[in-house]
Amino acid sequence: MAALTLSACGGGGDDSGASDTVRVTLVNHVWTENIRTALPEFEKQTGLKVEVTQLGEDQLSDQYNVKLNAGSSDIDVMMYRPLQEGRLFAKNKYLADLTDKAKESGDFDLADFQSAPLSATTYDDKVVGVPIITEQQVLYYRKDLLEKSGFSAPPATLDELKTQAAKIQADNSGVAGFVSRTGKAAAVTQFSSFLFSFGGDFVDGEGKAAVNTEAAKQAYAYYGGLLREHGPANISTDMSWSEAMAIFTQGQAAFYTEANSLYKNATDPGKSKVSETVGFAPFPAGPAGSKPYNIPSWGLAINDASNNQTNAWKFIEWAAGKEQTLEQQKAGVPGARTSVWENPEGIATYPKDMADAITVSLANGVGHDRPLVERVAQAREIVGQPIVDAITGKDAAASADAANEGFQKFLDDEAR
Amino acid sequence: MPDTPGWARWANDHRKWLFAAPAMAFVAALIIFPLAWTLYLSLTDSSGSVRAESEFIGFRNYLDVLSDTDRFWPAVGRTAAFTGVALFFEVVLGMAIALLLWRPFRGEKWVRVAILLPLVATPVAVGMMWRLIFDPNIGLANQALSWVGIGPQPWLAGQHTALPTTIFIDIWQWTPMVVLILLAGLTSLSDEPQEAAMIDGASAWQRFRHVTLPLLMPTVIVAILLRGIDALKTFDILYATKGRGGGSFHEVETLNVYAYGLSFDYNEYGLSSTVLILFFLIIIASMWALTARRKEGKR
Which of A34, A248, B94, B184 could connect to A256 by a Cys-Cys bridge, CB 3.0–4.6 Å? Predict the structure, then answer.
């Protein structure tokens, strides 16, 4: 009888098609590999079966665009990018409201999540997602090249970064001083830490476009100039992290600024020629200090059209729970739980200098790495234009003025 | 004689419709409906989500798109350049290779297999492969150039070299298809006109110019038609080599890549549908022009 009452209560549509199979869509990521090996444990605990669809980042995004737009119910749990598509999905009501489930679940402990990542998965005061992977930008560098050129420590400031990059490039033929992402949209997230450290942001306190402030112009000129003068010889304007990482791990660059969550690519001897000599340092300080981004890059959410929401929540409760987060962090995937960061076990497996760099980022970090808008892809293209213009030697300041005008128009358009 | 039931008589009377019905249902569901829906979307301001409320705005999208000299018209130009150049080289090279393969020779089978290899590869995989080869820093192409003393080229990375490079990849992959079609045409030609021309003392070039080519013309036009439509629609090679938006300066952004970006990056379904409808009209027009030419050729 109790069961009948319960099922009657849950008849609000969200569990009308309750099934023992939870359909989960995940992106290609270390986190996903780790969770897949742990799945049998979850299936044994709950008696549920998990069906995983795993896709590349772009394919995942396209899949959501098609399926969520069509109101398809064949995705229960979805891995998504809170800063990239979170607002759009929430506004379109693609994401189920998880507030009650998250607050009522005793072991889950919603208050344990760091506030910046959690706020990125909250929309209109409703919890619509749970952050699972966080990222901070750090400086990757080559200890051997630094030593060879007579530097005893990695650069603490952006000025020093430029000096050291130039010296190392001059001392080693065929090695670039610095590498980073150069693709118009791809570079925006990594450029953001430069922007913040010069004292700028994409949008000012009043919500106006701010990519042509003095600080922003300096940041564009610096980032583009560093790549143009001290970047790889045949620099393209198409590099995403995989191309830039390849150059660094092939031993062709001294410095590389990138998300810490990708560090295993550089330390894994199977993937990297420089695994023995790679070092990590906090993001170098600019005129406004060291202000790298500190963001939730991926979260889990429930498809609002899913008819299997209770079981879908069970999956999230487990996959984003304290135990799994600790396991993930031990395997090199930084999470969003305070308790795990406070637990010495949580950072025991990180290289010592990486752990130190993350500590600095957690203290000074900025909670976003791209404009916080609905149509993020479009905004990234607008504010990314001065980056590629600066790299190709065009007038970065003029390009920033043009970008600012376009960006303000975009913001006005979106506010309507 | 037993009475024929009414339904059977009816079916007998309408059998040509009955037999065609499955095909008609198929066309309606998979071609007419999506097309009509796209046409409808192109007249609305649909954006963000297809299910969100959208307003009917008449031809405003068309005005916006047709007056867009920033992205739309350059994309039209690139689509035309890509198709025209690729098609030209594919037909010329395809004809040359087909003529070489026309007469039997030793090891013919192996040569044919080798030539057809690019054709059976997935375009996305082909794009990825060439992307690695053309990588400006660690790619094979620049290494090969350095062995013969030529400096590194930007290939896909350059703002002005990217489109020619993608055209090269398209030619690499699709010339074999043209070879296949033309070879089929050549082998079906009868030998008599050739022999007659030879007796008359025509040189090899004269025989090709005045005998083989005119006889082969209908096949050439079929090849141009098939390959031309395909080249107009190219997406996978461009996407796999330069990614979304056709590169940081939209250097390989054709109409297809542009429409895709409008839909999947910008969530502008109305505008994207408008571009697709215009693109559809362009394809229909070029198809019509070519088929008209083909009928003329037959006459």
Answer: A248
What pLDDT is recorded for position A8?
37
10 Å Cβ neighbour count for A256? 25
Q: Higher-confidence residue: B287 or A296?
A: A296
**Residue A147 in contact with partner chain B when CB distance is under 8 A:** no
Cβ of B248 and A183 within 8 Å? yes
Are A316 and A300 in contact, with CB atoms under 8 Å apart?
Answer: yes
Low-confidence ranges of chain A (pLDDT < 70): 1-13
Among candidate residues B69, B82, B71, B127, the one with its CA nearest the CA of residue B258: B71
B151 vs A contacts (CB less than 8 Å) = none
The answer to whether residue B160 neighbours chain A at the CB level (below 8 Å) is no
ipTM: 0.84
Q: Give the number of A-B residue pairs with CB atoms closer than 8 Å.
A: 77
d(CA A404, CA A286) in angstroms, rounded, equals: 22
SS3 of chain B: CCCCCHHHHHHHHCHHHHHHHHHHHHHHHHHHHHHHHHHHHHCECCCCCCCCCCCECCCHHHHHHHCCCCCHHHHHHHHHHHHHHHHHHHHHHHHHHHHHHHCCCCCHHHHHHHHHHHHHCCHHHHHHHHHHHCCCCCCHHHHHHHHCCCCCCCHHHCCCCHHHHHHHHHHHHHHHHHHHHHHHHHHCCCCHHHHHHHHCCCCHHHHHHHHHHHHHHHHHHHHHHHHHHHHHCCCHHHHHHHCHHHCCCCCCCCHHHHHHHHHHCCCCHHHHHHHHHHHHHHHHHHHHHHHHHHHHHHC
- Looking at residue A67, what DSSP letter applies? H
**A222 contacts A198 by C-beta, under 8 angstroms:** yes
Of B49, B142, B156, Cβ closest to residue A92: B49
What pLDDT, on a 0 to 100 scale, did the predictor assign at position A5? Answer: 39
Give the pairing of strands A130-142 and A253-259. Answer: antiparallel
Q: In this complex, is the C-beta atom of B157 within 8 Å of any C-beta atom belonging to chain A?
A: yes
The reply to whether residue B248 touches residue A237, judged by beta carbons under 8 angstroms, is yes
| Assigned token pair, A154 | 């990695």
- A413: contact with B, CB 8 A cutoff: no
Rounded Cα distance between B257 and A318, Å, is: 40
Bridge partners (DSSP) listed for residue B191: none
Round to whole Å and give the CA distance between A355 and B193: 82
Helix (H, G, I), strand (E, B) or coil at A9: helix
Query: What residues pair up with A179 in beta bridges, in sequence order?
Result: A256
Q: Choosing among A63, A69, A191, A392, which should be mutated to test the B contact, i.e. which has the most B CBs within 10 A?
A: A69
- What is the per-residue pLDDT for B254? 96
| Residue B47 · residue B269 · CB < 8 Å | yes
What percent of chain B shows pLDDT beyond 90?
A: 63
Q: Tell me the pLDDT tens digit for each residue of A257-268.
A: 999 988 989 999
Do A186 and A353 touch, CB atoms closer than 8 A? no
Identify the three-state secondary structure at position A137.
strand
Instruction: Please state, in angstroms and rounded to a whole number, the distance separating the CA atoms of residues A117 and A26.
Output: 19
**H or E, element range at A257:** strand A253-259
- Report the distance separating Cα A263 and Cα B259, nearest Å: 36
Q: Two tokens at A157?
A: 């400031």
Residue A370 near residue A188, CB atoms below 8 Å? yes
User: Measured between beta carbons, which residues in chain A are less than 8 angstroms from residue B248?
Assistant: 182-184, 237-238, 384, 388
Q: From the CB of residue B69, how many other CB atoms can be counted at a distance below 10 Å?
A: 8
The answer to whether A309 and A100 have CB atoms below 8 angstroms apart is no
User: For residue B213, what pLDDT band results from cuts at 50, 70 and 90?
Assistant: very high
Distance CA B188, CA B84 (A): 28
